[in-house]
Structures are given as structure tokens and as C-alpha cells.
Write a structure and sequence with these properties.
There is one protein chain. By secondary structure, this protein is mainly beta. The strands form two sheets. The chain has a seven-stranded antiparallel beta sheet. A six-stranded mixed beta sheet has the order 11-10-9-8-13-12.
Length: 170
């Protein structure tokens, strides 16, 4: 799978959210969904709402992350960004290794059983304490555990399909 999986290099990938102002000089608190959280500071530019913004500097502040964005020089400007999603374009992510993929690359793939029974398409994924879960939207929504080899049998990006060992009635 290449870095342009599914031909969606310009697709927005959410990486976090701006939590609010930090201090009076335009810094903002950052909620990061990257692992480790500091990785969010490496991406440039960010898409904040519909605006491209560049991180001028960022750091860990206690248990939180804070950043100063170019053009955001005072508290009111920082406050105006509160709650905005931080995203990047898919092409900004480093290419995954051959045995890896990004969750975002699974979104929109068809999901079927080994017998070819269509269950729907991947809406999104989420993490739980035990395992990750694939949300499959079809005639109804299904929550399918992402357990490689047990439930998830195959991911074929060329065919844009995931095969899951899952009872269609469940």
C-alpha cells in the first residue's frame, strides 16, 4: 500500500483539537490524538478549521501540550481557536511500513464475510481498553472488533475491501 492509499492524498486526517488559550501571548493548549502526543507538533501546516496554520513553536507543559501558531500573537486570537479541530492532509503522514496502515485508510472500505455477504462500509474506528472496533455502516450499524486473524481475515486496499469472520445477523 502506498502513501496515497485509495487516491485520497488531500483527505483531511484529524490529529487533535485546540483546547483554549494558554497565557496572554497567543499560545494554545493542544489535545493530541497522536502517539506519542508530542508528534502532533511535527506536522506543518495544520488545518485548523478551514485555515492552514503553521506551528511556530510547541512544547510539553506539565501534562499538557501547548503551541504558538504563526499569526496568533495574543490571547483573543488564541481564544477564537478554542475547540477547533487540528487536521493534516493524508499525504503529510509518513508512509506506513508494509505491515502497517492508518485507520483513516480503512474508512470507506467495503466489509464482507468470507462467503461474500456484504455488511457495509467502514464508517470509522475507535479504541477501547480491550481492542479497537470497526464501525460498519450498512443496512444497520455494526461494531466489529478489530482482532487480526480472529475476526479480521484480510485487508485488500487494491480491491478496497476488508474480509471479516462475523455473523451477518449480529
Amino acid at each position: 500500500m502506498g502513501p496515497d492509499a485509495g487516491g485520497q492524498a488531500d483527505r483531511r486526517i484529524e490529529l487533535g483539537r485546540i483546547g483554549g488559550p494558554h497565557g496572554v501571548r497567543g499560545w494554545v493548549r493542544i489535545g493530541s490524538d497522536t502517539e506519542p502526543p508530542e508528534n502532533i507538533l511535527r506536522y506543518r501546516p495544520w488545518l485548523v478549521g478551514d485555515v492552514e496554520m503553521v506551528v511556530a513553536e510547541g512544547r510539553r507543559q506539565g501534562k499538557a501540550l501547548v503551541a504558538r501558531l504563526v499569526g496568533c500573537d495574543e490571547r483573543d486570537a488564541a481564544a477564537a481557536l478554542t475547540g477547533k479541530i487540528i487536521a493534516v492532509r493524508r499525504r503529510q503522514l509518513p508512509p506506513p511500513r508494509p505491515d502497517e496502515f492508518y485507520w483513516a485508510d480503512l474508512e470507506g472500505l467495503a466489509v464482507a464475510t468470507p462467503d461474500g455477504v456484504a455488511l457495509g462500509t467502514v464508517s470509522h474506528l475507535f479504541a477501547t481498553g480491550a481492542n479497537d472496533v470497526i464501525v460498519v455502516a450498512g443496512e444497520r450499524e455494526r461494531l466489529v472488533p478489530f482482532l487480526w486473524g480472529q475476526v479480521v481475515q484480510d485487508i485488500d486496499f487494491a480491491q478496497r475491501r476488508i474480509v471479516v469472520d462475523w455473523d451477518p445477523d449480529f
